Amino acid sequence: MAERPDHMDPEEFRRRGHQAVDWVADYLARLDDFPVMAGVGPGDVRDRLPDAAPEYGEDFTDVLADLDRVILPGLTHWQAPGMYGYFPANSSGPSVLGELISAGLGAHGAMWTTGPAVTELEQLVLDWLVAALGLPPAFRGNGVITDGASSGTLCAILAARDRAGGADDLGRMTAYVSEQAHYSMAKGLRVAGLPDSRVRRIATTPDYAMRADHLAYEIVKDRNDGLLPFFVGATIGTTSTTAVDPVPELAWVASNFDAWIHVDAAFAGTASVCPELRHLNAGLDEVDSYLFNPHKWMLTNLDCSVFYVADRRHLLNALATEAEYLSDGTAAALAEGDHETVDYRDWSVALGRRFRALKLWFVIRHYGLEGLRAHVRRHVAWAKELAEWVAADHRFELAVTPVLSLVCFRHVDGDEASRRVMDHVNNSGRAFISHTTLEDRLTLRVAIGSPHTEHHHLQELWTLLRAAA
Ligand code: PLP
């Protein structure tokens, strides 16, 4: 019987840590060799591992060996150079090391006092991003890191509900999102207690952007019926096609009816680090809340989403906890210094909070804004190039002109031919692409975004696409 737990002492941790970092480095060096998609069926991974937990601790080397034996064959390799599915989920060296150190510190950022540096670095890095991305000055001091866009959108909805009168008025409230909005909008509204029957799906233009005239029409209709329009969810960079909703017009409509307007730029938000792409930010000065995911395209591994409000009052009203056992010396600390402190537990749903700002700080300091711009620019340029190849091939047609680094297209012979092309690419092991449906037609999506993709990988993808056309 073990009398005391077998903790790794610092020296053993150092040794094992070197082994683990070596393992990750070896993995990254071999990224191009793995089939992009996991080649396993349901249950295969579990079947290769014991049903019960070990009674006694095992050797770390055996654990690492199982990574190679069981875990790697069961993984879809999101960092692989041939990964073009969905939207990217970037990782990078500095991000991984920031994550490692965050875990090593075991820090906790529920309140300022539970980790002053956790809170203040988060505030600082999010203020850096306001300037770096050309976001509205009102967002300064008003940002928080959440685990994902879905959480940020839920927080926006709860703040909007508070501003419109609180949960007691929910029975009259209506919300408006585009037909192309990510399902996290509908999910957040449902979690907030709004029945689906009071969520209006607003029609889009031929390039899949939300129509401001339809929004105004639906809001007026609901107001005339005695309902309370409280939330408009707009998107910069929709999941299907990276369509950009006309935020200035939507914000104008929303503000005329006192509805909260929230902008989801989960993928596209990173792009405005490039001044030439900052037109994407049009209208943000007029919105109530905004989010984007560094864990998509800003070289910061999952999870790291950034959520801003123009005015924090309603967010805090909706989410602040009054639990007495948590009250502490924050007020005293505030009284002592000039700086404002915040307790981030009151800014989102979770109480316990990891030190996520650390990896974002590592990433920004490692790459610099110029490095981040270079990362975005090459993907945007390659998407343009791929779109030109597609447009010039009579067997394919572009579904939309690429906005950033996503290329949407289909085979001119219809869905069956498009599916044949997609299956050929995905069964090759060299690349993976995903699809969407636009006007009932199967549409292929190539989302260029892995930090490991080089131009020759794109040429290889094009060869694969043409081979099955
Ligand atoms: N919003 C948009 C536009 C997305 O594309 C996605 C995911 O791809 C999300 C929200 C959901 O993001 P998360 O996984 O961070 O909740």
Q: What can be said about the biggest beta sheet?
A: 7 strands, mixed
Low-confidence stretches: 324-336
CATH architecture of the largest domain: 3-Layer(aba) Sandwich
Structural class: alpha/beta
CATH topological fold name of the largest domain: Aspartate Aminotransferase, domain 2
Count up the helices.
15
Tell me the number of structural domains: 3
Numbering strands along the chain, what is their spatial order in the largest sheet? 1-7-6-5-4-2-3
**Helix and strand run:** HHHHHEHEHEHEHEEHEHHHEEHEEH
CATH class group of the largest domain: Alpha Beta
Strand content: 5-15%
Net shape: globular
Question: What is the typical, i.e. mean, pLDDT?
Answer: 95
Taking the alpha carbons of the first and last residues, their distance comes to 64 Å
What ligands are attached or bound here? pyridoxal-5'-phosphate
> What is Rg?
24 Å
The CATH homologous superfamily name of the largest domain equals: Type I PLP-dependent aspartate aminotransferase-like (Major domain)
Helix amount = 40-55%
Give me the count of strands.
Answer: 11
